[in-house]
Amino acid sequence: MRLTVVGCCGSGPGPESPASCYLLEHDGFQLVVDLGNGAFGALQRTIDPAAVDAVFLSHLHADHCLDVAPFVVWHRYSGRSPGKLVPLYAPVGAERRLAVAYDIDGDGLTDVFDFVPVGAGAFELGPFQVELARTAHPIETYAARFTAGGRSLVYTGDTGPCERVVELARGADVLLAEAAHPDGDPDQPPGLHLTGRQAGEHAAAAGVGRLLLTHIPAWVDRIGQLAAASEAFAETELVSPGQVFDL
Question: CB within 8 A of 114, min separation 6: which ones?
């Protein structure tokens, strides 16, 4: 399994990275995980849009889904689309949410996507066994465990502290975890995001092999988040756009 970080900035694109977007590959299958604002341009440096086999959206906040719009434009007007529907796995309501984001009239996007609504549970997606767990976030959001070739990666999506995420990640090879809030912030609302230390604590509690920190907003100190997470879990790294990890 190969993970390519397309975009990793939290809450929106920053000066050095698009918002959340990752490419997972196994046995020639190419799965885009989240497609946040600014990500489609960077995605094209990694993969031909025509080669995307499926898209998975953890939730429908803008920084995880809005670049579905330029993806649609490319398929409709570039003259390079293969003309087959792209399966799009997302929480219930994605078809309407994304149609309105694309156009004020909310015309359907079913000429580009085959919408597949998801919920907590397990299913197959290409070569991946996928298991989803609802996270602690204001809207319906799912952490995902992707397993293929005997290796497993868990992506938290957006979440506050959540025992369901710990259980989903138990024993995983890699935990790709958000760490959006700085530690010690008294104004941090509950049930929204993890701090760096909390991301490390989740990794330690789950017994994962490796923690990759992502979704850090441009205004938050990345090195501070890494230091806080590493105090709780030593095998911690920051991700950057363009990085490739072979699991």
Answer: 85, 86, 87, 88
